[in-house]
Amino acid sequence: MVLDVPKENDKVFEVEGIKIIIDEDMADYVPGFVIDYRNTFFGKRFSVESLYGGGCK
Length: 57
Hints:
Blueprint lengths: L9 E6 L2 E6 H6 L3 E8 L2 E8 L7
Antiparallel strand pairs: 1-2, 3-4
């Protein structure tokens, strides 16, 4: 598991006890994010995607 510490220009959001760190410029640029966390047949999956599409997994 990779743990990261927020930098000065990051925004931190907490969703159901999970903290998500997003670069401030990216957070201000898009209107919002979709956060998906679930158990699947292939294991746990966690993804954060911008409402404009794309995203990071």
